[in-house]
Write a structure and sequence with these properties.
The structure holds two protein chains of two kinds. Chain A has a single domain, classed as ABC transporter involved in vitamin B12 uptake, BtuC (Orthogonal Bundle), CATH 1.10.3470. Chain A contains 15 helices and four strands. Chain A has helices at residues 9-19, 21-37, 41-60, 63-67, 77-92, 97-125, 130-152, 184-187, 200-218, 220-230, 232-237, 242-268, 280-290, 300-325, 328-374; strands spanning 175-177, 191-193, 196-198, 270-272. Chain A is globular and about 85 Å long. Chain B has one domain (48-60, 68-374): ABC transporter involved in vitamin B12 uptake, BtuC (Orthogonal Bundle). Chain B has a two-stranded antiparallel ribbon with strand order 1-4. In chain B, strands 2-3 form a two-stranded antiparallel sheet. In chain B, a hairpin with a 2-residue loop joins β2 (218-220) and β3 (223-225). In chain B, α15 (327-352) runs antiparallel to α16 (357-374). The longest helix of chain B is centred in the middle third of the chain and has 29 residues, at 127-155. The chains are: A mainly alpha, B mainly alpha. The A-B interface holds A 122, 125-129, 131-133, 135-137, 139-140, 142-144, 146-147, 150-151, 325, 327, 329-330, 333-334, 336-337, 340-341, 343-344, 347-348, 350-352, 354-355 and B 104, 152, 155-159, 161-163, 165-167, 169-170, 173-174, 176-177, 180-181, 197, 309, 354, 356, 358-359, 362-363, 366-367, 369-370, 373-376, 379, 381.
C-alpha cells in the first residue's frame, strides 16, 4: 500500500492515462464521429439533455452494490421489472399525470424490494462470482416476469381495461401506452434555453439521489458497506453483519432502479412490456464504465460523464457508420459492439488487477519472510 | 517438505512416471475418500431441480396419448433435436474439466463454425463436400480464436464466466459488422438487392442440409432416426472420453480439480487450460455445423447468442456442475432439455390451449444455471 508514494511522476501520469483510458477513448470516438454524423449542435444538445434526464437515475443506482464490493449489478433489471409491473397496474387504474407517476413509484417499492432481497440472498450464496450470478438472476426473474405479465395478469390479477390487454382475454399487450403520463415530470418546471428543453424537475430528483448517496456514504451503514467491500473477512471480524449489509445494498440498488425506471418510462411515453427492461442493465453498466468507473470503484462523476459520452456515441454512431460504409446498420452494430466491448474491457482489467494485487501481496510476504530469515 | 524431495516434479513426463510409482496405499485412499464424499453428496445433491425436470418430462410423456399428440412424432423430434445440439453441449466438457467454468463464451466458437460454413459456400462447394470443407475451414479459425481466448482466460483466472459471457457478446457484435462488410458474393447468401452483406438466414438446400442425417437413415413406423448425425456425435463423444483418459486428459482434470496440486506436480497449468479452451472452441464450431446440418439454415448476426444459455443449461441438467462434467451428463442433459423444449409446446397447447413453453424454457434453463452457481459446495475455488 505504501508503494504508491514512491512511484515517479512520469509513471504516475502513465497510470492516470491508463486508468482513464476508456473515457479518453470515447472522447476521441465522439470527436471523430460528431462531424461525420452531421447533426446540428442544438439537436445533439437536446438529445443529450433528454437522455441524461432519462438515464441518470438508473445509472446512479449501480453505485450501491459497487460500494459493497459486489461488482456491477447486472440484476438492476429486477428493479426495472418491479417498476414495470407497478406502471401496468397504475395504467390499468387510469391514474395519470403526476399522481400516476408518484403512485407507480410507491407501488414499485415492494416489488423491487422483494426482488432485490431474493437477488441479494442468492448472491450471498455465490460469493466470489456475484456478477455472473446477478446476470443469470436477471434472466431467471425475467422468466417469472413474463409468466406473471403474460398469463397471470388478466386471468388471476384483475385487469379492468381491455385497451392494455391482449385480445385473447389475459396477458398484457406488447406495448402499453402511457400517453397521459408522458413527460409529466420532465415538463414540470421545464425551462427552454436556446431551443434546448431542460427537464429541471427530473434533474432535481437526480440531484436528490446524488445528495442521498453522498450523505449515505457517511452514515454507519454506508461505512459498513465500504468495509465489506474492502474485505469481507475483516468486516466480519469487526462485527459487521456482512450478509445483511450486502443484501441491503442490493435492495437499495433495485428500489432506486425501480424509481429510475418510472422516470425512464414517463419520458419515453410508452411501455414496451416484454423488451423494456431487457437492455436497461447493459446500457446503464456500459454508460457507467464509459465514465471511467471500474468494477470496484465508481462515483457520481463517473455516472454523469459516462451518460454524456455513452449516449453521445449512441446518437452519432449510426450516422457516422452510414458516412463511412454507406450502411447505417454498420453504425448500429458498431455501437452495440462498443457497449459490449467496454464492459468486457472493464471486467478484464478488474480481474487482471485483482490477480496482480494477489501475486504482489504474495511476493511481499515472501520478501518479508526472507528478510526475517536473514535477520 | 520431505515428500517433495523424494520425487522430482519438474518435468511432466517425470510426473507421469511418478504417478505409476506412487504407492497405492497412499493417495488412492484419499481419492477414494473424495469419491465416496462426492458419491454421497451426489445422492443428496442430485438436486431438487433435476428431479423436478425429470418428473415434468415424465408427466409430459404420460400426458401425450391423452391429449391426442402423436408420440412417435414427438420421439422423432427429440432424437432429431438431440442430434442437432449434442455436439454443442459436448463442447462444454473440456473447459469445465480444466476449471474454466461454464463456457458462456460459446458465441465465439459458433462464430468459427459460421465462418467455416459461409466460406465453404462462398468457395463454391456443394453437397456433402461443403460440410467437410466447412469443418476444415472452421478448424484454423477455432485454433486461432480459441488460442487467443485461452490466453485471455489464463490471465483472469477466477473470473472466467463473466468475462467469457462478454467476450462472446463482443465477438458476436463485431462479426455482426463483419457479415455486412466482408466481401462475400455468393448469390445464395448475400442480400438480393444491394448485392453485399450476408442475409440473416441462409438456406442450406443443395449444400450440407441433412447430409449426415441421411447416412444410414432409419425409419421404423413413424419414428425416424438420423443415424449419421448420431454416429458423428458418438465418435466425437468417444474421442472426448478417450482423451480424458490419456495423460494430457488426466492432467486437465487435475488442473480443474486442484490447480495448486497440478502446478506442484509439474503440469503446465496455463498450457493445459489453453488446450481445453481450444478444444472447446473447435467442438463448438463443429457443434454449430452439426446444428445447421440438421436445422437446414445458417443463422447469422445475433443468432449465436440464442444457443448459449440452452447449451449451458443442458449440461447442468444432465448432472454436471461448475467444475465437473462427463459424457453421460452431456447425453442425459441434452435428452432432458430437448425433451422439454419439444414436448412442452405441443402437449401444453393441446392440453390447455395455452402455449407457455417459452416461459417454461426460460425458467427451467436459467433456474438450472442459477442452482449450479449458488451451490455452496462448489463455491470455493
Amino acid at each position: 500500500m505504501n508503494g504508491k508514494k514512491n512511484i515517479p511522476a512520469g509513471k504516475r501520469l502513465l497510470e492516470l492515462v491508463r486508468n482513464n483510458a476508456v473515457p479518453i477513448m470515447f472522447i476521441i470516438i465522439c470527436a471523430i464521429f460528431i462531424p461525420m454524423a452531421g447533426f446540428s449542435p442544438s439537436y445533439l444538445l437536446n438529445e443529450i439533455v433528454t437522455r441524461m434526464g432519462r438515464n441518470l437515475f438508473l445509472v446512479l443506482c449501480l453505485l450501491f452494490p459497487i460500494m459493497a464490493g459486489m461488482g456491477l449489478n447486472f440484476a438492476m433489471t429486477l428493479g426495472a421489472m418491479g417498476a414495470e409491473i407497478a406502471v401496468i397496474l397504475v395504467a390499468d387504474w387510469q391514474i395519470w399525470g403526476i399522481p400516476g407517476v408518484v403512485l407507480a413509484m410507491i407501488l414499485s417499492i415492494p416489488f423491487s424490494a422483494l426482488l432485490g432481497f431474493i437477488c441479494g440472498t442468492l448472491q450471498n450464496m455465490a460469493k466470489g462470482r456475484e456478477m455472473i450470478t446477478s446476470y443469470i438472476i436477471n434472466f431467471f426473474i425475467n422468466g417469472w416476469y413474463q409468466l406473471i405479465v403474460l398469463y397471470v395478469m388478466g386471468a388471476v390479477i384483475p385487469i379492468i381495461h381491455a385497451s392494455i390487454m391482449l385480445p385473447r382475454g389475459y396477458g398484457i399487450r406488447n406495448t402499453v401506452s402511457l400517453l397521459n403520463m408522458r413527460q409529466c415530470l420532465d415538463d414540470l418546471l421545464a425551462i427552454r434555453v436556446a431551443g434546448v428543453k431542460i427537464p429541471v424537475f427530473t434533474f432535481l430528483l437526480v440531484g436528490l439521489l446524488c445528495l442521498f448517496i453522498v450523505w449515505f456514504r457517511r452514515t454507519k451503514l454506508g461505512q459498513d458497506m465500504r468495509a465489506v467491500g474492502q474485505d469481507m473477512e475483516v468486516a466480519k471480524a469487526a462485527g459487521i453483519n456482512v450478509d445483511r449489509t450486502r443484501i441491503i445494498s442490493v435492495v437499495m440498488s433495485t428500489v432506486c432502479a425501480g424509481f429510475g425506471m418510472v422516470i425512464y418510462l414517463q419520458n419515453i411515453g410508452n411501455l414496451p412490456t416484454y423488451t423494456g427492461h431487457a437492455q436497461i442493465g447493459m446500457f446503464c453498466i456500459a454508460a457507467l464504465l464509459v465514465g471511467g468507473a471500474s468494477v470496484e470503484k465508481a462515483g457520481i462523476g463517473n455516472a454523469f460523464l459516462g451518460v454524456i459520452l455513452f449516449h453521445m456515441m449512441f446518437i452519432v454512431a449510426p450516422g457516422a457508420g452510414a458516412f463511412i460504409t454507406g450502411d447505417s446498420m454498420v453504425g448500429e452494430y458498431f455501437r452495440v459492439f462498443l457497449s459490449y466491448g467496454v464492459i468486457t474491457l472493464a471486467l478484464i482489467m478488474y480481474e487482471a488487477k485483482k490477480r496482480m494485487a494477489k501475486s504482489k501481496a504474495g511476493q511481499e510476504l515472501a520478501a518479508a519472510q526472507v528478510k526475517k530469515e536473514d535477520a | 517438505m520431505s515428500e517433495k524431495k523424494d520425487y522430482n516434479y519438474n518435468s511432466p513426463s517425470k510426473f507421469n512416471d511418478e504417478m505409476k510409482t506412487i504407492p497405492p496405499a497412499r493417495w488412492p485412499t484419499e481419492l477414494e475418500k473424495a469419491q465416496m464424499g462426492t458419491m454421497t453428496a451426489m445422492v443428496s445433491s442430485f438436486g431438487l431441480p433435476r428431479i423436478i425436470i425429470s418428473g415434468f418430462l415424465l408427466v409430459l410423456f404420460i400426458l401425450t396419448p391423452f391429449v391426442g399428440v402423436d408420440l412417435p412424432t414427438q420421439i422423432t423430434n427429440i432424437i432429431n433435436r438431440f442430434s442437432w445440439n449434442a455436439v454443442l453441449v459436448l463442447a462444454m466438457v473440456p473447459m469445465i474439466h480444466a476449471g474454466c467454468g461454464l463456457n458462456f463464451g460459446l458465441p465465439l466458437a459458433i462464430i468459427c463454425g459460421l465462418l467455416g460454413g459461409t466460406l465453404s459456400i462462398q468457395l463454391g462447394f456443394t453437397g456433402p463436400m461443403s460440410f467437410l470443407m466447412a469443418v476444415l475451414i472452421a478448424t484454423p479459425f477455432a485454433v486461432i480464436l480459441g488460442g487467443g481466448y485461452g490466453l485471455l482466460l489464463n490471465r483472469i483466472k477466477g473470473g472466467e464466466m463473466m468475462i467469457a459471457t462478454y467476450v462472446g457478446f463482443s465477438v458476436m457484435s463485431f462479426f455482426c459488422m463483419m457479415w455486412l462488410l466482408l466481401p462475400y458474393s455468393s448469390p445464395t447468401m448475400v442480400y438480393g438487392l444491394s448485392g453485399n452483406g450476408l442475409r440473416p438466414t441462409i438456406s442450406l438446400d443443395g449444400f450440407y442440409n441433412q447430409v449426415l442425417a441421411k447416412i444410414l437413415h432409419i425409419k421404423i413406423g413413424n419414428i425416424e432416426i438420423p443415424t449419421g448425425s448420431l454416429l458423428v456425435f458418438a465418435l466425437l463423444a468417444f474421442l472426448m472420453w478417450a482423451f480424458l483418459h490419456t495423460k494430457t486428459g488426466t492432467a486437465m482434470t487435475a488442473v480443474g480439480s486442484n490447480p495448486a496440486f497440478a502446478r506442484a506436480a509439474g503440469i503446465n497449468v496455463d498450457r493445459t487450460r489453453m488446450l481445453s479452451v481450444i478444444m472447446s472452441t473447435w467442438l463448438g464450431a463443429m457443434g454449430i455445423l452439426m446444428y445447421q446440418q440438421g436445422f437446414g439454415f445458417i443463422q447469422l448476426y445475433n443468432a449465436p447468442n440464442n444457443l448459449t444459455m440452452p447449451t449451458v443449461a443442458a449440461i447442468l441438467i444432465g448432472g454436471a456442475s461448475v467444475n465437473k462434467a462427463s459424457i453421460p451428463n452431456v447425453i442425459i442433459g441434452t435428452i432432458l432439455f430437448q425433451g422439454i423444449v419439444t414436448m412442452t409446446p405441443t402437449v401444453m397447447n393441446s392440453a390447455i390451449h395455452m402455449d407457455m413453453s417459452e416461459v417454461i424454457r426460460i425458467i427451467v434453463s436459467q433456474g438450472m444455471i442459477l442452482y449450479a452457481l449458488t451451490r455452496k459446495t462448489e463455491g470455493a475455488k
